[in-house]
Amino acid sequence: MILLQLTANTGPEECCLAVRKALQVLLRECADAGVTAEPLEQIPGDKPCNLRSVLLALEGAAAHTVAQRWRGSVQWTCPSPYRPGHKRKNWFIGAEVFEPDAPSASEALRDGDLRFETLRASGPGGQHVNKTDSAVRATHVPTGLSVKVQTERSQHANKRLARALLAHKLASAATEDTNAARNARWLQHYGVERGNAGRVFRGEGFVEI
């Protein structure tokens, strides 16, 4: 499993729209490559359907290849659809990859430090969502950090996703403990590097060039 995060950082709403459009492209690429993509977390933008960030779990033989194609800075060149006449036409979002099964992630998350609870799923999800206790809450006892996952109807699948999400959050927290890592996180979450985009898209149709 690989976790892939698309984020608008602190960018304007145009960047949130870019995340939404990038997600659509990413999901098509996953489908073409036979990779499953499960959304774990989403932070909405100010406009309907826009996303400030989205975290996905990718699984499949080509998951690593798909994720690496997105890693880094992504540029969208398009006049602002929200501010006619605005001079800026280049909008940047970031994509970061985390591998929960990597040695460093596994070391940070020991089984003995985890507590799992099952609970009834809630919210949208069809007629079956509230009929089984398939949702899972995972807690890292030493830190008290907790996550809840109800993406899948299978308790086992949700437990695995919860563990991966918890590993991601712990790794992110550990990253902030050093100045060098904090600077790297700044680039990813607060000020995406501009002018060095790995992928560039153009126009309202979000066509890659």
Explain how this protein is built.
This protein has 209 residues and is of the alpha+beta class. It folds into two domains: 2-101 and 180-208, 2-Layer Sandwich (Alpha-Beta Plaits); 105-175, Double Stranded RNA Binding Domain. Strand 7 and strand 8 form a beta hairpin. It has five helices and ten strands.
What labels describe this entry?
209 residues; alpha+beta; Alpha-Beta Plaits; Double Stranded RNA Binding Domain; 2 domains; seven-stranded mixed sheet; 10 strands; elongated
The level 1 CATH classification of the largest domain is Alpha Beta
Strand content: 25-35%
| Number of helical stretches of at least 4 residues | 5
Taking strands numbered 1, 2, ... along the chain, how are they ordered across the largest sheet?
2-3-1-5-4-9-10
Give the proportion of residues in helices: 25-40%
